[in-house]
Design a protein that fits this description.
Elements (H helix, E strand, L loop, with lengths): L7 H11 L3 H12 L58 H14 L18 H4 L13 E2 L6 E2 L2 H12 L4 E2 L6 E2 L2 H12 L4 E2 L6 E2 L2 H14 L39
Antiparallel strand pairs: 1-2, 3-4, 5-6
This protein binds a DNA duplex (15 and 15 nucleotides) through helix 5, helix 6 and helix 7.
Length: about 260
DNA sequence: CTGGGGAGGGGGCCC
DNA sequence: CGGGCCCCCTCCCCA
């Protein structure tokens, strides 16, 4: 994907980066973000072109472009591989309306759409030297839509699917579609009922590692005092037998061309 | 609390 | 050796 217009966006971001401004990124992201109200939950139908007819009848094909109240997102979407529209800033009206939307969506991930996790990925905030050891993970790939920065083209590409609404990975057992293959595989456990992760203490099984982790945290916090001799749930993935079940959910159908880009 | 989906990060492999 | 891609992890939000 040879997007990343050498355009001003990037330069701008570089500039921002030079200033060591995650804040700049964030604020910019914020501005754009307001336009990017994440697609409604349960929204599976992308923009019309990508995913096929599997979409449920009621899965209103409303991407983030089609906003409930009839307003529509600014046309800053990419439609074709690597074809990016030049990002544009919104005029106030747009921003306002979209802010409203954001409100409704309870801004899903903290403030910025492409939020940087708590962990200071960019350390350049304080020191200010862009190439310092602090910024050991360079994020040279900027999303034209939300100005999110990513460390690789792949991550950017993946991220962009959010904006395009494309979900290349379809579950063959239901109508769900996913942007990431891992999501699909994870989802398939819902169908298979597979729960390979078990809490040692309560014997509760989980289908996901993070579910176990979360449970474990709660479990530990809840009864730290109780358990003196026995560590609750070890952070180990496979508790007992690895999924005995043959991959009923195995990638039978390799998702339709992983974004033919 | 739990279950499920969404999203970004990071390590590793391959070309 | 670097970049692209993949897999997996972890966290967040929401029902």
């Amino acid at each position: 994907m040879s997007h990343l217009p050498s355009s001003s966006v990037r330069d701008h971001m570089k500039w921002a980066g030079l200033l060591g401004c995650e804040a700049v990124l964030s604020s910019m992201a914020l501005m754009q973000a307001s336009t990017m109200a994440a697609p409604p939950k349960k929204m599976m139908a992308p923009l019309g072109h990508a995913p096929p007819q599997r979409d449920g009848p009621d899965s209103a094909p409303q991407s983030h472009m089609i906003l409930p109240s009839g307003m529509s997102c600014p046309p800053l979407l990419i439609r074709k591989e690597g074809e990016f529209q030049a990002p544009r800033l919104l005029d106030e009206k747009d921003m306002r309306t979209n802010e409203d939307m954001q409100q409704k969506k309870k801004n899903r991930k903290s403030v910025t759409p492409c939020k940087v996790r708590e962990q200071p990925v960019f350390k350049m905030g304080t020191g200010g030297d862009e190439n310092g050891p602090a910024s050991k993970v360079q994020k040279n790939f900027i999303c034209d839509h939300c100005y999110g920065a990513f460390r690789s083209g792949y991550h950017l590409k993946r991220h962009i699917l959010i904006h395009t609404g494309e979900k290349p990975f379809a579950c063959d057992m239901c109508d769900m579609r996913f942007i990431q293959r891992y999501h699909l595989e994870r989802h398939k456990r819902v169908h298979s009922g597979e729960k390979p992760y078990q809490c040692e203490r309560c014997q509760q099984n989980f289908s996901r590692t993070d579910r176990l982790l979360r449970h474990r945290r709660l479990c530990q916090g809840r009864s730290v005092a109780k358990v003196e001799n026995q560590p609750c749930c070890e952070p180990r993935p496979y508790q007992q037998e690895p999924p005995p079940a043959p991959p009923t959910w195995s990638p039978l159908h390799p998702p339709p061309g992983r974004l033919a880009v």
